[in-house]
Amino acid sequence: MTVLEPTSAPRAPGAAFIFKKALISALVALVLFSLMIGIRTEAGPTGQLIYWTRFGDLAALVAAVFAGSIAVELLRWRWGPVGMVRIVPPGVTSALALARRAIAPLLLIFALLVPVIFYDQRYILDLGILVLTYVMLGWGLNVVVGLAGLLDLGYVAFYAVGAYSYALLATNFGLSFWICLPLAGILASLWGVMLGFPVLRLRGDYLAIVTLAFGEIIRLVIINWQSLTGGPNGVSGIPRPTMFGIPLTPGDDGLAAKLGIEFSTTHRIVFLFYIILALALLTNWVTIRLRRLPIGRAWEALREDEVACRALGINITTTKLTAFATGAMFGGFAGAFFATRQGFISPESFTFQESALVLAIVVLGGMGSQLGVALAALTMIGGFELFRGLEQYRMLVFGVAMVLLMIWRPRGLIGHRAPTVFLKHSQEISSDLVKEGHG
Amino acid sequence: MDYFAQQLINGIVLGSIYGLIAIGYTMVYGIVGMINFAHGDIFMIGGFIALISFLILVSIGLTAVPVILLIVLLVSMAITALYGWTVERIAYRPLRHSFRLAPMLSAIGMSFVLSNFSQVAQGARVKPVPPIITGGYTLLDQNGFVVRLSNVQIIVVITTIVLLLIFTWMVSRTRLGRDMRACEQDQTMAALLGVDVDRTISMTFVIGSALAAVAGMMYLLYYGLVDFYMGFVAGIKAFTAAVLGGIGSLPGAMLGGLAIGLIETLWSAYFSVEYKDVAAFSILIIVLIFMPTGLLGRPEVEKV
Amino acid sequence: MNGETILTVDHLTMRFGGIVAVNDLSFTAERRKITALIGPNGAGKTTVFNCITGFYKPSGGTMRLTHDDSRMIQLERLNDFRISKQAKVARTFQNIRLFPGMTALENLMVAQHNALMLASGLTFLGLIGAPSWRTAEKRAIDRATEWLRRIGLLERADDAAGNLPYGDQRRLEIARAMCTEPALLCLDEPAAGLNARESAGLSELLLTIRDEHGVSILLIEHDMSVVMEISDHVVVMDYGVRIAEGSPQEVRDDPKVIAAYLGADEQEAIAVMESGT
User: Fold this and answer.
1) What is the pLDDT of residue A188?
2) Chains touching chain A at 3 or more Cβ pairs under 8 angstroms?
């Protein structure tokens, strides 16, 4: 709902009102936290349960809730209700539009130059690789959720299939990364079709939870099928990619020796960086092209109104299956890359939390928007990195962030959709009009 | 045969726990049309609250077991209900008129918040408790295999039955129950007729959470431990139970719960323990594909 | 059966649980003519449409579509998208179902999906930008543009369909259906919510479709001015059965039809029905 801002400021809420609200919030917090925070239990040295009190922490938290509640009320008075539209002067709008068009190419150039700029900072390069991996995953899931409107909560399954395909093919048959990469994609998209078939008639929440179940099944099967996958111990010794068959090793047969330069482990990192960048850009290019082709338009039409699609003679079944297969394929590529980058994979990397994270990236980015997804991945993964050392709070903050994001900007950062064909000029369509799809 | 009888008893007890959680799922889905992804974690919170309450009561010297049980039951129901109420107020109510994906993602976020909150607040390790209720009855003792019905099991089943009766009475006889059913059918019309929709929805979450708390306490008594991750898997299984029984149907939720409990126990006993969760998830998929209205649900015709 | 009939509905029955929405309905629609299906609310007209266009599977009866080349298709055997794709039956909806987040032009492009999919070589030719694909795409855009011009929306081709005024949306939905190159066009209350001027424009559009494109039209409508003005043949339904059939004038003067619409009291209605054929 959008409401135009009134010409006069709204009446300030009384101090008593704010105080009462804050008091209630604090009281609720007191009850909620009394046992969970006030008392800390632990398995004692002899196996029995011991506990100690943390009333200080409890008091601090309750006070924080009290203060926070006051702050929220004051902010609400200043900024108005969530979802209110602010009338922006046209000069600002056009400047923003110009900035938006410039961001994508600028980001691309920056990404290409990262290994050059940060050549010696291993940490930054690793972070870059991580961000790009999630950008690719986000772009892949975007095809399923953003374009076709199919709520997939089990995307991690395709990631896992791709990773384990490469890992097992490489360690058992000695196949190189470059041969296994397309194979991983094919296997993942086969799994995508297999997932797609049973869920064709499911909508909305039901589709979401079934895809979640599929993702969990894959993880459990990986954990328990020890003879194939090594179970919880995972697969190790996964070979790194080679450049035209030449490995990046220090020895005489390594690339450094062949090129006559001094060997450095940074070479491999840079190589990996450009590989994932290339894969991500491939994902992006294919998606953009597909959007302009009948299949991509059919995906978006499916999201907008499935019934109308049927009436227009579009085969819903194949449309959904191709969406799943394509998204899965990119997930598979990303998985294979993940395996080769780490050298070791285990089922712990493929939990539901990963699926939720990628989905959050897609939604935060504004479903369907390539740039949005990239920015969202950067923000989320960058944000996660800030929590290094505070890992236990990381998921907690992530959960809070998801809730806040849905309340504040459910349509994501990029609030519109770009049409794929136009006569005179391409007008961006506000996301208020774009349906989110039910699967 | 005796082995089978024992598994049957175990399955019914486990099924009762799942059924209590499933009722929360089915009520919420019936009234606001969303899967409350955080409900499983409410169950887990209930277990933790029960654990801590037990600890306090025992350490202040209370020894009468029935008194302890009653106090723990009431305390965990009350506090966990407040958790459920708070979650609804903060994460779902603002999104009630937003688009479909928003409450679901918010619920997923809330689920992470609750499970990680427990982890941060109480540490990541599993918390064991010594058995509070011991003893039981030997039902059969032949061929060297003993079929036992423990006191814990009796308490779980009886508590479940009592609560189910109270609850069914409440839904069909009281004003609140009528309001709930009205909101399930047509929220706008109910509001126009004077039903406080916000309050009714809140109460739905409160009741569902209270029942989940009972399930948490029963789980603690039965298995002797709680951990912060138990909500996720139990949640999916309980949702499977709700769907199996027919989403929106209360007796269905209980029926589904018993079915899932029995299937899981029998599968672990006769096939493999490692894949028991896979079995439960597979049932979810199969039911939603072939029998989406479940056993006791009503079929929906698509209006074009 | 003469070669002039495009659709033959024979003993069509549709049951929902205990309710019989359509009861043993038979009627024909002629080629290159406009056939109107009218009746009070709840008579079962949209249900008939849903059966014909593959959204419901009828409980009984047959619906035969006869093409120009005498090829016959049993519609009750086809399901959803095939009715549009193979039988060439297109439809619009009572509550407009455009793609609101896509532009008017994009809506019309989606309608040409099947032809474009073939031309893009199941996407692969399209991916590599083959010239044959580019030509086909240009042709599709031209066809869409032509229709936009015809319905007066050329200026708004790049606007989101959800932003268009109601009357424009109705016309766009018809244009979208026409872009699938149907043999039979089924319109569900196309004049609903249109004012007098817009209704006149709609009538003109439908007559053009019939005369210039040679498309047969089956139409549900409550707006009698439109029905009287453009229909060649009218079928009247009430409570799931056919109660009258004929030219617009014949039907208008039929006492059974009058009784149904006026909600004549029980005695009169029964007397009228019993005195009929």
Assistant:
1) 95
2) B, C
